[in-house]
UniProtKB/TrEMBL annotation:
SUPFAM superfamilies given in the database record: Glycoside hydrolase/deacetylase
Pfam families for the chain: Polysacc_deac_1 (PF01522)
Coiled-coil zones: none
Organism: Paenibacillus montanisoli
Domain NodB homology: 15-196
Descriptive protein name: Polysaccharide deacetylase family protein
């Protein structure tokens, strides 16, 4: 089996951008991010952590019902290169099952925890039919609470047709990320971008 490739952007996608969130869902922050996207009629991809989905299935269901995409972010958020190939496969499959229970469909895309990959993981992802997604604005480091202006300043240079942008809406205080997205979403729309799911960006939408 050929290994999966890591995707940071999609060439020639037109005026489309995919905004993504990791570690979802969170009972405090996820609904607030959903409100921002609802206000502007935009869509996003939420990379769900299986253990959080098991705790908050109603929030995962809200994400799906509001037209967003649920992607796979593993079951327990391990450093995937440090576990065996069989354990990698189990992490993806068990998280996948939780997503299927909410959405009725298998997710198309997977974001590795910590963006850590090795050859085994890329093969496992391909075997399971996943596209492996990273992102362009990695210097934003929104998870570290570096300040709203830092998040925006390190994200804006990554904005172009076909960009995939990475943020977090769980795992701690996400007020800076929320504030940054409250600025960025309308800004992108004013620039003529359409905010879509990763699957739509990749042409995988069914």
């Amino acid at each position: 089996m050929k290994a999966a490739e890591i995707i940071n952007e999609v060439q020639s996608a037109g005026r489309l951008i995919a905004i993504t969130f990791d570690d979802v869902p969170d009972p405090e922050w996820t609904p607030q991010f959903l409100d921002v996207f609802k206000q502007h009629g935009a869509k996003a991809t939420f990379y769900t952590l299986g253990t959080n989905m098991a705790k908050y299935p109603e929030i995962a269901r809200q994400i799906h019902e509001e037209g967003h995409e649920l992607g796979n972010h593993s079951l327990t958020h391990p450093h995937m290169p440090e576990i065996s190939k069989d354990e990698q496969r189990a992490e993806l499959q068990q998280a996948e099952q939780l997503i299927v229970e909410v959405t009725g469909r298998k997710p198309n895309t997977f974001r590795p925890p910590y963006l850590d990959v090795n050859d085994d993981l890329l093969v496992v992802a391909a075997e399971l039919g996943y596209k492996v997604i990273h992102g362009l604005n990695l210097r934003a480091n929104d998870w570290a609470m570096p300040g709203t202006e830092h998040i925006l300043a390190e994200t804006r240079p990554s904005i172009r047709d076909g960009s995939i942008l990475l943020f977090h809406d769980a795992g701690g205080d996400r007020s800076q990320s929320l504030e940054a997205l409250s600025v960025l979403v309308p800004e992108l729309l004013e620039q003529g971008y359409r905010l879509v799911t990763v699957s739509e960006l990749l042409g995988l939408d069914r």
